Amino acid sequence: MTGPGGVSIVLVRGDITAQSADAIVNAANSSLLGGGGVDGAIHRRGGPEILADCRRLRASHYGKGLPTGRAVATTAGRLDARWVIHTVGPVWQRDEDRSELLASCYRESLRLAGELGARTVAFPAISTGVYGWPLEDGARVAVRAVREAAGAGGAGGVEEVRFVLFDDEAYRAFEGVVG
Ligand code: ADP
What we know:
Shape: globular
Strand content: 15-25%
Oligomer: single chain
Strand order of the largest sheet: 1-6-5-2-4-3
CATH architecture: 3-Layer(aba) Sandwich
CATH superfamily: Leucine Aminopeptidase, subunit E, domain 1
CATH topology: Leucine Aminopeptidase, subunit E, domain 1
Bound molecules: adenosine-5'-diphosphate
Radius of gyration: 15 Å
Mean pLDDT: 97
């Protein structure tokens, strides 16, 4: 179903590295030099070109790394995509509300995807793995951020935002929010 700003939200259960999309979003860490979870899987399947691009970014604009809540694009290497958009989610903290930073990851990634000319964008559930964000809240923040950005024209020509959820629990959390 088409939502605000002409953007459809689609939920898929699976491995994000097996997706075909214009842009695949990586739940990166600020070093941009790889990690576990989605990040490790993207570099493994996408091959060394992605890391080479990340190293170039570290050597130029992002000498100190990519700040939390921001997004940057590289080649997608061997993935079935044109770009990987790397964004750094916040680590979940019980005593501090960092949800604006998590929303920023989705908003900035979508804005960049729009600027690049992407029509389909695949997102993982950012911060809900190693970074410890509770799934239901992570899903709520994700869907709201995408709807708000799309409604405000912040997604350019993006037509489909696909959340790629790794397991049943994550899928159900997103399903509960999208309805
Ligand atoms: P973060 O460090 O931002 O928490 P993770 O990669 O550890 O990032 O996890 C983010 C989410 O992505 C988790 O819900 C995790 O289960 C899921 N995930 C891990 N690997 C994949 C994959 N290959 N495709 C899609 N989702 C994945």
